[in-house]
Design goal:
The structure holds two protein chains of two kinds.
Chain A (H helix, E strand, L loop, with lengths): L1 E2 L4 E6 L2 E6 L1 H7 L2 E5 L6 E2 L4 E7 L3 E5 L4 E6 L2 H4 L3 H4 L8 E5 L11 H8 L1
Chain B lengths: L4 E2 L3 H6 L3 E5 L2 E6 L4 H10 L1 E5 L4 E6 L3 H8 L15 E7 L5 E9 L3 E6 L4 H11 L4 E4 L3 E7 L3 H6 L13 E6 L2 E6 L8 E7 L3 H9 L4 E3 L2 H10 L41 H10 L3 E8 L10 E3 L9 E9 L4 E9 L8 E6 L2 E8 L11
Parallel strand pairs in B: 1-3, 4-14
Antiparallel strand pairs in B: 2-3, 4-10, 5-8, 5-9, 6-7, 7-8, 10-13, 11-12, 12-13, 15-18, 15-20, 16-17, 16-19, 17-18, 19-20
Classes of the chains: A alpha+beta, B alpha+beta.
């Protein structure tokens, strides 16, 4: 698992990369009430806004951590955005991306480096 | 920016694990570890304790109540003179254009008036009143904290400290001994729930807060839930839903201006902006504050522009407060709409991230008020 400075996690699952936000991020954001996901098939570029999340108080953007195509979105979040708070690194994932350049993963932090980053 | 001021409850907030934010010049808790949603629901179901010590507490005194009330009616277009002893009322200060300088709660405390004003406005309100009303004395109370205990269990919780609170009705005020000190208690608040606001000397504030928090039904509540609670209850936030560019009539606060201050009334006018406000009460305004219920799940917040249709060019209004309503279970908002579109049931569209999403004009509050009348 890799981590970005924007508090996203990336988990390689075969040929795809699953993307979500960290527990630390959900603690900072508070209870999520709305998640807007991109359409399956969207081709995204690194650092492009792909997801909008809203807590009770504010909206935030989630950026694509890598180039690729959105091949699956977490439909369950539409009815139950609180899944992100309950299980940020599991059931609370946002999108699955088929990456076009896996070397982009290399620049991100390991779990230990991320824990040090937020400490 | 200068360092934020601390309220007498600051150390308690830290001990309770609050996340502190700067607000109206003070460091205040935006939420505690349980989070905004749980804090909101807890207040609706049981009782929440809020630190609102940033708000301005002001005493206006003079020869007697009528002298003070007569003076205040030169600045406030509501019925101050007719307010009975130990009663509280909502009002606002207006300017020469009819705009709202601040909204406030005032109470008749026998020989003087006690006013609670917004924290961000208190310095300007006080100097304005002092300059405009040389015939009375306007003093800021700086040595008292202000706590709010809100929710259906508030009465039971507070009555363990003094059973006399049970005899108070909505908008009653009373001086009561709580934790060994005289507190100024009103049966009112900013959540749409039954509850109390308690002015307590700064050196007893933590003792009182702890005494209330000892009750299993009482949890500390931050500014985040305070905002969602007041929004669901259709209550205005000064500086957002009303300000000096909105008149009380545009702000749908007509109900606060009684017949006696309107055209033909015994004490008609005589306050700043009276010409504008009295004319608008008679012949209406071009825009009006309304409740708005987004049809989808996406919250629409302050600043979202409103349109008559998916295509129409000119905007017909704007959202001034919006977010998720935890008790309603969906997004809720309020804002201004051109009067032609302000009728309950009208569908309008809000522009969010490039798309126009439907909202309906609805009656406020979004949930029924739960006062002990």
């Amino acid at each position: 698992m890799k981590f970005t400075e924007e508090h996203e996690w990336l988990r390689t699952d075969g040929d795809v990369v699953v993307v979500g936000i960290t527990e630390h991020a959900t603690t900072q954001l508070g209870d999520l009430v709305f998640v807007e996901l991109p359409e399956v098939g969207t081709v995204v570029t690194k650092d492009e806004e792909i997801v909008v999340i809203e807590s009770v108080k504010a909206a935030s953007d989630i950026l694509a951590p890598i180039d690729g195509e959105i091949i699956e979105i977490n439909e369950a979040l539409a009815d139950n955005p609180a899944l992100v708070n309950e299980d940020a690194v599991g059931d609370g994932w946002f999108v699955k991306i088929a990456p076009s350049d896996t070397s982009q993963m290399d620049e991100y932090m390991s779990e230990a480096a991320y824990q040090a980053h937020i400490a | 920016m200068s360092e934020p001021l601390l309220t007498p409850l600051y150390d308690l907030h830290i001990k309770l694990g609050a996340r502190m934010v700067p607000f109206a010049g003070y460091s205040l808790p935006v939420q505690y570890p349980s989070g905004v949603m749980k804090e909101h629901s807890h207040t609706r179901e049981k009782a929440g304790l809020f630190d609102v010590s940033h708000m301005g507490q002001v005493i206006v005194s003079g020869a007697d109540y009528d002298t003070v009330a007569t003076a205040l009616e030169r600045l406030i277009p509501v019925d101050v003179l007719g307010l009975g002893p130990d009663r509280q009322r909502y009002g606002f200060l207006t300017d020469d254009k009819g705009g709202i300088l601040d909204d406030l709660m005032f109470s008749n405390r026998g020989d003087h008036v006690f006013i609670v004003v917004n924290g961000a406005c208190k310095a300007s309100d006080i100097s304005y009143m002092q300059n405009a009303l040389p015939d009375v004395t306007v003093s800021e109370i700086k040595d008292r904290a202000l706590l709010a205990l809100q929710g259906p269990r508030a009465e039971i919780a507070l009555s363990t400290l003094n059973p006399a609170v049970k005899s108070m009705r909505f908008m009653d005020v009373k001086s009561l001994n709580l934790v060994g000190t005289s507190c100024w208690v009103s049966r009112s608040g900013y959540t749409g729930e039954d509850g109390f606001e308690i002015s307590v000397s700064a050196d007893h504030a933590t003792v009182l807060a702890n005494a209330l928090l000892e009750n299993d039904d009482v949890e500390p509540i931050g500014l985040g839930a305070r905002d969602s609670l007041r929004l669901e209850s259709g209550l205005c936030l000064y500086g957002h839903d009303i300000d000096d560019t909105t008149t009380p009539v545009e702000g749908a606060l007509n109900w606060a201006i009684p017949k006696v201050r309107r055209l033909g009334g015994y004490r008609s006018g005589g306050f700043p902006g009276a010409n504008t406000i009295l004319r608008q009460l008679d012949s209406g305004t071009k825009r009006k504050r309304v409740g708005l219920l987004p049809s989808g799940r996406a919250p629409m917040r302050e600043g979202v522009k409103l349109y008559a249709s998916q295509e129409d060019k000119p905007s017909i209004g704007v959202i001034t407060s919006g977010g998720f309503g935890p008790t309603v279970g969906s997004p809720v908002a309020m804002g201004y709409l051109a009067t032609d579109y302000a009728t309950v049931g009208t569908q309008v569209f809000g522009e969010l991230r490039g798309s126009r999403l439907p909202l309906n004009v609805v009656k406020m509050p979004f949930i029924p008020a739960n006062f002990k009348r």
